Every structure is written in structure tokens, then in C-alpha cells.
């Protein structure tokens, strides 16, 4: 009562007087209620509260914890209003609070009060020091089961909230060893409520650190691992004689630059012919020495090596090209063209071995030429297609098939004719070739080609070109899969059972295709090549949206690798060895891809152990057949690739014992007398385990070989690259040194060749990665300069970053601190800078927490919210941390975006403006094209959501577009047109209810806010409304939607009421049933917001239209809405289709009585009279049965309201009869009620 009526306060003051107060100390309920009343007075009116200061003091002196807490809270309100000086009051009451730690309620009240000590803390340093220590002790209090006590949790949270108001400089002086204690307290806290309170405190610390940071820069990476020294001296160690290059062809292709350094240093264009001659000679020597022997794996290793060779060749030629003759842009094109001509020139004079190598070199050339070299790529494709179709030359066909598959990915996206030719050629040869090896190579080529399909969200093209080529990429993916699987079933009938599980391939049509071929063990690469092609197709399947088929292919490949621990006999089915070979080689890239797109739930340790157990079993069986040599080689190389893919990804930790067992097996293989193929497998398995990526031409499984992940040396787990891991570095370096010595000194030529080749792959990969890191660093120098500044060892940002980096989710029994991780990420999101560590790995690990950890272990927090925090962090720091930018790029790719949780999609949509600042123009264009397809495609997974969820996503999209228009995009940029297309896509999705009301208010609100930002010329183009007389029901709703949008824009002031007026006839001449009633409501609201002249014009025009329209009730309802909103009775009126007409005899005269109608009242009355006579005459005839329902062009649907309308208009005319001419008044008097 006293809050509303001030005279009641003296009575209340008497009740709250300390003397009255003391009489109720024994009655706890009354005592507590009086204390609560004192607190309420101090909160609502501190000026009144100060009159009760003695009562406040009595509360604080009370021994009742609840009353004491209320007294402390009361005093805090008085200090907040600066009516009571905090430090003066504290001096008085501090002696009463010596035992605050006994009760959490008192501690909570005390923390609320101590927050106000921050204002003059520096002036009262010693006292404030004690206050800070008190807050710290309460905030970190964990005795007596305080972690589970809700009251203590509240008190601790309040303590940190109050601490955040004190200067950090004071806090660090007040609390000994503050930086360490704060870090430990924060990272060991798991309660969400306390963490939320700590968040602001940590952010204040981070700001303080940044302001007072040391402006010192660190030097570049100085740590040099022992293996780096070995790799550096490799060329000098293995190529002691220049003429010995051909003895180690693989290593030479990867490491040697065949042009003289002196020539390149002088850079004279006249020496260009000498460089070409040197490389041409090397080409023929290496091609003659490189023995591939119908082995697809060796061919892929060779092609990978030729890629380095032609890259060195191009670099040398570009260096010598005269800049006057050729622009900087055209130099690589000319170099590529010259090299291609030389390669073609060497073909006619070559033997089959050389021809195979040159074919692979042509494929390698297309992989290194710039994307603009369309002519070279097309010419190479045409050349190899001729070879592919020469059935009499097997060596030409199978090598050309592999190269064509890779070249397919180099075509320009619009060059669909060339793509069609390659696909058709591979289809023809795989069907008609007699050679099984050619079939296998074509299968691999088709698998590679699949990765070049569906690279855009919308693969449609120019209609003429589409009609000419008949090239549909979605159909091509399915046809490729069907062709590969059908070929596989023909060659290996036992695979049919597994492949029938693939829904995309139409495998039900395979019935009867199984043919009992004899064993292909003498030519195992036929089946293995097809399996490799099947594995490479998962990328296109994923883009197609066939996620279940991607998972099924992964499972099929795993099933074809026998489990040694099972009771089944190994390889008891014909050609099962070849299936296993292909699966061992294909599976690592499939697993890497599934890891990246979060389609992997397999036990990676068990999968890796399946490889090692199988290798061990084969070694024990001591089978000498060539097919088993090939199998052991495939197992070793595949296992090495799988291991590096898992470890280099940095998300999953492997048992070091399992890794060591595998590496020991490889070591045993290449140090004991085995056939050359087995030695090759052992060495390449080792270097691939170290991250060489030999033979991986797609880059799916490539991960960084550099790592900053912390390991304990004695840890039983290893995560991150083996070569740089303290856990595995000793073993891996020792093995690398052994292979290096074999490359340098081995007597057996095969062993020496393979060892040099393997180490050269590792060297090439290591150098290229470090070079790309250096290039990236130089390109982003201005941004990364801030990142290179050192962080102090006690820096909170530094330590929190390391804590995230070194989190171990694999320890059994540990509860994953999901709350803590999320809060740490929140704090680092607000940090101005973060150290340059493995943020890509860190964020991906955090994103997968809920997939790795049982729900019961996540401390009752929704782990999907952690994924949101990962996004916010990435968005905040992606501009200067490349892995985070790549992470966002992956997430916003349409196939990945489709599978994200709705809340993650919503965050990305709302932050479109931020993404546009991060992405290039071309990437932004693709993003908007993808989103348009996602929301507008009839087959989009977005349609699987409920209508409410879809509306939430669209609302997020509207908000994101709006921010783009405000912050990023101007009308002159290309992005402007992309945004316009997105808006055009979203507009038809704004739903209306049956009565015309917007179905989802928040979505409509976001849409209108966005359209308000758009230039005025836009809505006029997008919101065109045609006559509604001949529209279907769907078009009728679309017209209503557009008019409602226009009306709301007019109400907001960004569209002229005159533009809305152009639609007046359409609006008022359409039946007001269903959605159109809300159109009238929205238009009336818009007109009400316009100036008086517009209102008058609309009313007069509405009356005129009512005299001629087929639906006069529509015009009358609008008149009723407009008059009702403008008259004095507006607050009392009920708005519905009937009431607005019933109220017209009151609302219209009231509106006309306004001064704005002084010169037009008579005109309005005359128009009303004309409308009345029309309706009255029609209704009278209907009543007498003399007229038709559609009389005088009035629609028959209006007949049921004819009498009501006539009587209502008659009453309205009587209300305005003073403004009618005398003759009309007389006629009105003669009208009788019907």
C-alpha cells in the first residue's frame, strides 16, 4: 500500500521500528517478515529506507541467519543508491560478521553487500584487501559438501559476481599466487551456476591481461626434430653421383630438380631450351627406369611422384619465361602448354613401360597446372581418351583410365562436354574391355571422377548446353555407382550380398548378373581397382545426400577385411583376397572423410587392430603367392594411412602399445628377406604412418604433420602426428633412420630404391607443408603479427588455451567437464587474441564431446550447447586463425550444413554477415546459392523439420540477411544480387493462417525488419501484385502475402502510401473471406499511420469502389476498419468482420466529425448515399423475390448479407443526413428498414 499511497508509510514505519522489532524476536515467522519488509522498503525507495537504518542494523545484529542476510541485502540497496557510505557502514557492522562462513545465506547476503566496496576500493586499500579476500574465500568454499548445497552454490556465484566489479590489479595484490589459484579454481569448477558467475570475472581478467600485455614478439619455430635433419640431407646422401638418378627413379622424381641452379639464377630466357632439354632427358630416363608392372598401387605412387617432377619443371620454365613476352598470369599457362607438347612428342618413340609413365605424367601435369589452363587440360583429356579406346594396347588403356579419372576433377565447372566424354569413355571401356586390369583401372577412374561431380549446390547450367550434353550430374553419380558395383559383382560374385545393401545403386537389378569366373588371383588389381573406385565415390554420395549409403560403403569395406579373431577361415571364398586388398587401401580415406563429416561411430582402435592382426597372421602363414604379397603390401600401406589419418586428425587417441606393435611388424618386414612388393609395403606403410600420404592423390586423408598437442612421455595413449609426438617420436625417428640408411647403403637394389622412394615422399610432404605454413604466415602477416606476440606463463588466456588443448577425454571413469569446457570457450571467445595453437583440432574435439561421452557423464548440461560455443569461438577468431576458417568453411558446405543440428544451423544463419567478412566473394556466392537450395528445394532435408522449427530457421536466415545488408553489403557489390535471390526465395515461405494472420509472428517480424533495410526499389520488384479475379487459391494467398508485406512496410515508413494506393482497386474488390480479411486489417493499419490527406483519399475511394465492385462488403469492411481506428471510440471497439460493419453508423460519423473533413464532409456523404441506394435497391429486390443474387454486377456470395448491409447503410446515412442535399434527405426519409 505504501508504494502506491505515500501517506501509509508512517504507519508502516511504526511497525518496522526497532523497538517493535525486538518484541517479535521469539516469533521467527513474524521476525522474518518484518526483516523482509525492511528489505523491500530499502529496495523500492532508498530515501525511505534510510529512515529505517536502525531497523537494518538490528537485522544485521540478529543471530537468525535469514534475518541477518535480509539486513545485509537491505544495506546493499542503500549503498547502491549512495545514501549510505559503504566503508563507513562496514566499519560499524564488520564485527558482527566474523562467522559468516558458517551459514550460506549470510555469506550470500554479505557478498551482495561487498559488491559496493568496489567503488572506493583504492582509497581504502587495506580494508578492500580484506573484502576481496572474504569474497574469494566464499567463492572458492567447498567444505561441508558445499558443492551439492544449493544455498552455498548461490553464495559462491554471488561472490564471483561481486568480485568482477573490483579492479583486477587490486585482486592480484590481495590474493597470494592469484593467477595460479584462479586458473585452478576455474578449470576445476563443474557447477553450471557458479561457472556462469565466474564467466564475467574471467573476462575481466582477460581484458586486464590484454591491456597490460608484454609487447614482445617471439622468434619463428626453433625446435628442430632429428628426423628433419635426416630429411634435409637425403638428396646428398642417396644421390652421390649425378648419373645415378635413374637407379632410384621414384626418389629422383620427388627430390631432384634437373635444371642447373646457375641457369635459373641468371634467369635468361635464351636458356629456356636447355631447361626443357634437361627435363625431357630426365623424363625419358626416369620413365624407362620406373617399373610399374600392372600394379595399381605402384602406378598411383608413380603418378604422385610425377606430380612433383612436372611441378619442378613448370617452376623452372616459369622462372625463365620473358616477362615482356608473357604476362605474369599467362606464364604458367605457356609453361604447361610447352611441357604437354614435349610429353606428347615423347610418346610415339616409347616402349610400353615408358608409355605408361608418360600417361601418368600427363595426368600429373593436369593436377599441377593453374585452373585457368583449360586448353591444356582439355587437350590432355582428348589425347588420353584416344588411348583409352585402343583396346589392343592394355598398357595404354589402364594407365589412361587412372589419369582421366583424376583429370576429370580439373575441368572447368562449365565444361560439361569434356566431362561427359570422359565419363562415357570410362563407361564404354569398363563394359567392353577384355582385360580385367583395364576394368579395375576404369573403376578407379570412375571413383576419382565422382569427386568432381555435384561440387556446387545447383548443378544446373545454361539450358542450351544442358540440352546438347544431356548431362545430369546427379544421375551420373548413380550411374557410376551402379556401373562400378555391377562390374564388381560380375568379377567377384561373392560381393553381391554386401553390395545389395546399397540403395543408391539399383542393386536389385543385379539378379542374374553373377557369373562364375575363375579366380583372379593372378590379376588381383582388377577387383581391387573397382573397390578403390567404390571407396572414392563416398564424397559424391555425401554431396548427393545419400548419407546412409556412405555409412554402408564404409561398413562393406570393413566387412571385406577379415577379422582374424573370428572362427571363420581366412579367404575361403574365391577372389576374397582381392576384395580385401582393395578394402585395405580404400578404407583409410573413407574413414578420414567420415571423421571429417561426423559420420563415424566405429571403434577406431578395433579397426586398426584388424589391420595389424591380419598382417601378423599373413606373416605367420608364410604364403608366397603373388596375390598374398600384394595383399600384405596393401595391408601395410593401408594401415599406415589409417593410423596417420586417425592420429593427425588429433581427435582420437590411440593406445601406444597397439601403434608400437604395428610399427614393429613393419620394421620386421623391411629388415628381413621378403619379396620386393612386401618390402615396398613395409616401408611405405611406415612413412604413411608418419604422415607422408604416399599415393593419396585426392587429399581426403591429409592432415597436418605439425602438432602442438601436449603428451606425457610415459602416457599409454598417443594423439597427434607420430613424428612430433613425445610418446612416439623416439620409435618413429629410429625407424625413419633405419629406412634412411637402407636408402643410402643397402646392397639390394630393390630395397634401396623403395627405401629412398619412401623417405622422399615423407620429405616432399614435410617440405610442402612447412612451405604452405610459411606462405600462409606471410600472406596473413598483418593479422598474425599480433598472434606471434608472446603470452606470459601465468596468462589466463594462455593457460586456458593449453587446458583445452590437453584435455583427455579417453581416461576411463573421468567425468567430462562439459560445463567447464563451454564456459572456457565463452571466455576465450571474448578474448581480443588467443595463442596460435591447434585450434582446428581443439574445436573439432569439443564438437564431438557428446558423441564420445555417455550422457550421464556430462553433468546434466545439453552438450549440443557446447557445439554452439565452438561456433561462437570460431566466428570470433577465424579472421586470424586459418584452421578455424577452414572449420567454418566445412560446416557451411551444403552437404555438411544439411546434417547439422537445428540450433547449430540457426547460429550460422544468424552470423551470415560475419561469414561474409571471412569468406571470399566466390565462397560467399556459393554459400548463398547453397542456402537458397536448402530452403527452396522440394527434396531438402529442411522439410523434415516441423513447421515451427522451419519457421525458426527462416527467422534466423532473415536476421542474418538483415545484418549483411546493414554491416557488409552495398548495392554496388555482387553480393547484393545474391542476397536478393535469397530474399526472393524466402518471401513465398512466409506463411499465413486460414484467417490471414501471419502464422509465425517472430518470423514475420524478422522478415519485415530485413525488408525495411532493403532499398525501396527492391520490394517494388518482388512484391508485384496482379489482378486477383482469375487467381487460383495458392496465387490468391500469395497476393495476400505480398499486400500484407507492403502494408507493413508502409506502416514502418519505408514504402510510400501512394504505392500501396496503386493496389487500392485490387484490395477493395476482392472477397473478404479467409486470408483477405487480414489484408484489410493490415492495409487499414498502414493507412492509419499515413497523413490525413491519404486517409481522406482512401475513404472516398473506398466508397466509390463500393459503388461498382462485385464485392461491396469488402469496401465497407475497410471503411469500417479505417473509421474505427480514427474515431474517438477506437479503444472500445471489437475488430471482427461483422462488428466493423455493425459499428459503421457510429464510427463513420465520428470520423467525419474530425476537423480534417471540413471541406469534404458533403462529398463523403454523397458517395455514401450512392453506395446506399445501390445496396438498398439490390437488397429490396432480393427481399421481394424480383431480382437475382448477382444483380447489378454484385457477386452472388454477397446476397446472404444484403439485408444487413442495406439496413446498416440506411442507419449510417441517417447519422450523416445533415451533410446530404435536401432532395437526398427526403429520399432517405422514405427508405424503410428491410
UniProtKB/TrEMBL annotation:
Pfam families: DUF3730. Residues 1-162 form the DUF3730 domain. InterPro entries: ARM-type_fold, FOCAD/RST1_DUF3730, Focadhesin/RST1. It comes from the Eukaryota. It comes from Aegilops tauschii subsp. strangulata (Goatgrass). GO terms for biological process: regulation of post-transcriptional gene silencing. This is DUF3730 domain-containing protein.
Amino acid at each position: 500500500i505504501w508504494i502506491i499511497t505515500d501517506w501509509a508509510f508512517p504507519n508502516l514505519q511504526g511497525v518496522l521500528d526497532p523497538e517493535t522489532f525486538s518484541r517479535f524476536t521469539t516469533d521467527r515467522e513474524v521476525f522474518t517478515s518484518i526483516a523482509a519488509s525492511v528489505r523491500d522498503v530499502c529496495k523500492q525507495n532508498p530515501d525511505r529506507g534510510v529512515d529505517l537504518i536502525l531497523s537494518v542494523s538490528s537485522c544485521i545484529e540478529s543471530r537468525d541467519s535469514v534475518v541477518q542476510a535480509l539486513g545485509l541485502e537491505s544495506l546493499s540497496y542503500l549503498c547502491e543508491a549512495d545514501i549510505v557510505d559503504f566503508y563507513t557502514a562496514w566499519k560499524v557492522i564488520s564485527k558482527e560478521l566474523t562467522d559468516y562462513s558458517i551459514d550460506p545465506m549470510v555469506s550470500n547476503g554479505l557478498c551482495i553487500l561487498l559488491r559496493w566496496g568496489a567503488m572506493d576500493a583504492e582509497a581504502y586499500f587495506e580494508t578492500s584487501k580484506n573484502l576481496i579476500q572474504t569474497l574469494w574465500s566464499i567463492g572458492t568454499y567447498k567444505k561441508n559438501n558445499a558443492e551439492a548445497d544449493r544455498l552455498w552454490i548461490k553464495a559462491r556465484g554471488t561472490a564471483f559476481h561481486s568480485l568482477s566489479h573490483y579492479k583486477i590489479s587490486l585482486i592480484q595484490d590481495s590474493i597470494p599466487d592469484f593467477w595460479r589459484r584462479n586458473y585452478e579454481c576455474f578449470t576445476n569448477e563443474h557447477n553450471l551456476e557458479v561457472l556462469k558467475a565466474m564467466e564475467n570475472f574471467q573476462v575481466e581478467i582477460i581484458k586486464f591481461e590484454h591491456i597490460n600485455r608484454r609487447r614482445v614478439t617471439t622468434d619463428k619455430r626453433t625446435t628442430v626434430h632429428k628426423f628433419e635433419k635426416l630429411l634435409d640431407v637425403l638428396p646428398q646422401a642417396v644421390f652421390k653421383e649425378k648419373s645415378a638418378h635413374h637407379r632410384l627413379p621414384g626418389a629422383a622424381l620427388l627430390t631432384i630438380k634437373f635444371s642447373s641452379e646457375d641457369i635459373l639464377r641468371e634467369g635468361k630466357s635464351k636458356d629456356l631450351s636447355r631447361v626443357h632439354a634437361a627435363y625431357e632427358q630426365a623424363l625419358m630416363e626416369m620413365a624407362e627406369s620406373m617399373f610399374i608392372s600392372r600394379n595399381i598401387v605402384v602406378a598411383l605412387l608413380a603418378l604422385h611422384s610425377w606430380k612433383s617432377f612436372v611441378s619442378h619443371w613448370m617452376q623452372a620454365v616459369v622462372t625463365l619465361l620473358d616477362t615482356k613476352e608473357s604476362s605474369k598470369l599467362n606464364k604458367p599457362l605457356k609453361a604447361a602448354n610447352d611441357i604437354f607438347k614435349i610429353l606428347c612428342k615423347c610418346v610415339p618413340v616409347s616402349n610400353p613401360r615408358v608409355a605408361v609413365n608418360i600417361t601418368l605424367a600427363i595426368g600429373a601435369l593436369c593436377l599441377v597446372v593453374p585452373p585457368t589452363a583449360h586448353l591444356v587440360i582439355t587437350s590432355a583429356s582428348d589425347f588420353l581418351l584416344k588411348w583409352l579406346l585402343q583396346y589392343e594396347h592394355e598398357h595404354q588403356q589402364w594407365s589412361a583410365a587412372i589419369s582421366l579419372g583424376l583429370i576429370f576433377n580439373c575441368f572447368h565447372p562449365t565444361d560439361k562436354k569434356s566431362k561427359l566424354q570422359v565419363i562415357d569413355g570410362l563407361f564404354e571401356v569398363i563394359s567392353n574391355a577384355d582385360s580385367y586390369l583395364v576394368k579395375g583401372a576404369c573403376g578407379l577412374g570412375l571413383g576419382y571422377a565422382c569427386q568432381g561431380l555435384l561440387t556446387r549446390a545447383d548443378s544446373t547450367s545454361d539450358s542450351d548446353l544442358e540440352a546438347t550434353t544431356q548431362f545430369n550430374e546427379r544421375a551420373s553419380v548413380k550411374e557410376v555407382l551402379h556401373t562400378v558395383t555391377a562390374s564388381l559383382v560380375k568379377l567377384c560374385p561373392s560381393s553381391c550380398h554386401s553390395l545389395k545393401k546399397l540403395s543408391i545403386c539399383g542393386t536389385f537389378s543385379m539378379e542374374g548378373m553373377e557369373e562364375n569366373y575363375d579366380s583372379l588371383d593372378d590379376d588381383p588389381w582388377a577387383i581391387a581397382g573397382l573397390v578403390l573406385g567404390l571407396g572414392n565415390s563416398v564424397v559424391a554420395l555425401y554431396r548427393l545426400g545419400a548419407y546412409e549409403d556412405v555409412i554402408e560403403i564404409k561398413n562393406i569395406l570393413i566387412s571385406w577385411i577379415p577379422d582374424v579373431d573370428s572362427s571363420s577361415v581366412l579367404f575361403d571364398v574365391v577372389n576374397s583376397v582381392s576384395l580385401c586388398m582393395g578394402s585395405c587401401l580404400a578404407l583409410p580415406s573413407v574413414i578420414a572423410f567420415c571423421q571429417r563429416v561426423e559420420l563415424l561411430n566405429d571403434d577406431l582402435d578395433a579397426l586398426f587392430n584388424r589391420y595389424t592382426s591380419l598382417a601378423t597372421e599373413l606373416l605367420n602363414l608364410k604364403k608366397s603367392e603373388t596375390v598374398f604379397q600384394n595383399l600384405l603390401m596393401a595391408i601395410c600401406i593401408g594401415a599406415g594411412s589409417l593410423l596417420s589419418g586417425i592420429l593427425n586428425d588429433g581427435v582420437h587417441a590411440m593406445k601406444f602399445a597397439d601403434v608400437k606393435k604395428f610399427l614393429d611388424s613393419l620394421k620386421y618386414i623391411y629388415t628381413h628377406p621378403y619379396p620386393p612388393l612386401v618390402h615396398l609395403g613395409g616401408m611405405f606403410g611406415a612413412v604413411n604412418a608418419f604422415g607422408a600420404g604416399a599415393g593419396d592423390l585426392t587429399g581426403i586423408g591429409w592432415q597436418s604433420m605439425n602438432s602442438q598437442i601436449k603428451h606425457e612421455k610415459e602416457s599409454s595413449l598417443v594423439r597427434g602426428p607420430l613424428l612430433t609426438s613425445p610418446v612416439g617420436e623416439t620409435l618413429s625417428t629410429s625407424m625413419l633412420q633405419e629406412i634412411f640408411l637402407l636408402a643410402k647403403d643397402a646392397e639390394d637394389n630393390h630395397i634401396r630404391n623403395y627405401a629412398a622412394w619412401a623417405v622422399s615422399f615423407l620429405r616432399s610432404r614435410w617440405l610442402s607443408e612447412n612451405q604452405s605454413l610459411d606462405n600462409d604466415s606471410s600472406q596473413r602477416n598483418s593479422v598474425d603479427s599480433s598472434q606471434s606476440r608472446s603470452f606470459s606463463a601465468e596468462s589466463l588466456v594462455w593457460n586456458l588455451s593449453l587446458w583445452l588443448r590437453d584435455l583427455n577425454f579417453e581416461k576411463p571413469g573421468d567425468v567430462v567437464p562439459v560445463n567447464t569446457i563451454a564456459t572456457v570457450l565463452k571466455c576465450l571467445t571474448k578474448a581480443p587474441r588467443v595463442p596460435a595453437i591447434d585450434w582446428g583440432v581443439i574445436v573439432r574435439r569439443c564438437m564431438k564431446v557428446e558423441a564420445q561421452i555417455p550422457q550421464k557423464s556430462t553433468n546434466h548440461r545439453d552438450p549440443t550447447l557446447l557445439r554452439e560455443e565452438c561456433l561462437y569461438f570460431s566466428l570470433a577468431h577465424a579472421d586470424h586463425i586459418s584452421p578455424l576458417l577452414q572449420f567454418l568453411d566445412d560446416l557451411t558446405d551444403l552437404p555438411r550444413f544439411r546434417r547439422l543440428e537445428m540450433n547449430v544451423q540457426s547460429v550460422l544463419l544468424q552470423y551470415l554477415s560475419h561469414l561474409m567478412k571471412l569468406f571470399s566473394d566466390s565462397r560467399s556466392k556459393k554459400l548463398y546459392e547453397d542456402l537458397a537450395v536448402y530452403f527452396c528445394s522440394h527434396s531438402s532435408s529442411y522439410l523434415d523439420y516441423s513447421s515451427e522449427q522451419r519457421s525458426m530457421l527462416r527467422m534466423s536466415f532473415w536476421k542474418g540477411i538483415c545484418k549483411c545488408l546493414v554491416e557488409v553489403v552495398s548495392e554496388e557489390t555482387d553480393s547484393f544480387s545474391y542476397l536478393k535471390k535469397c530474399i526472393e526465395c524466402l518471401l513465398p515461405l512466409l506463411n499465413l493462417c486460414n484467417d490471414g494472420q501471419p502464422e509465425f509472428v517472430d518470423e514475420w517480424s524478422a522478415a519485415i525488419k530485413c525488408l525495411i533495410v532493403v532499398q525501396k526499389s527492391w520490394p517494388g520488384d518482388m512484391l508485384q501484385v496482379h489482378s486477383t479475379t482469375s487467381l487460383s487459391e495458392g496465387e490468391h494467398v500469395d497476393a495476400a502475402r505480398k499486400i500484407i508485406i507492403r502494408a507493413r512496410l508502409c506502416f514502418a515508413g519505408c514504402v510510400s502510401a501512394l504505392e500501396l494506393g496503386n493496389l487500392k482497386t485490387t484490395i477493395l474488390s476482392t472477397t473478404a473471406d479467409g486470408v483477405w480479411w487480414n489484408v484489410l486489417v493490415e492495409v487499414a493499419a498502414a493507412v492509419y499511420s499515413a497523413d490525413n490527406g491519404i486517409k481522406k483519399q482512401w475513404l472516398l475511394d473506398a466508397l466509390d469502389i463500393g459503388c461498382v465492385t462485385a464485392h461491396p462488403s469488402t469496401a465497407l469492411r475497410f471503411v469500417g476498419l479505417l473509421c474505427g481506428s480514427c474515431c474517438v471510440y477506437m479503444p472500445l471497439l471489437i475488430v471482427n468482420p461483422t462488428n466493423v460493419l455493425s459499428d459503421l453508423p457510429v464510427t463513420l460519423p465520428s470520423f467525419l466529425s474530425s476537423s480534417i473533413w471540413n471541406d469534404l464532409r458533403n462529398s463523403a456523404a454523397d458517395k455514401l448515399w450512392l453506395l446506399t441506394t445501390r445496396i438498398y435497391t439490390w437488397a429490396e429486390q432480393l427481399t421481394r423475390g424480383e431480382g437475382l443474387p448477382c444483380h447489378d454486377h454484385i457477386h452472388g456470395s454477397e446476397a446472404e448479407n444484403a439485408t444487413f448491409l442495406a439496413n446498416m447503410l440506411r442507419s449510417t446515412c441517417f447519422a450523416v443526413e445533415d451533410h446530404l442535399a435536401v432532395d437526398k434527405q427526403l429520399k432517405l426519409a422514405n427508405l424503410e428498414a428491410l
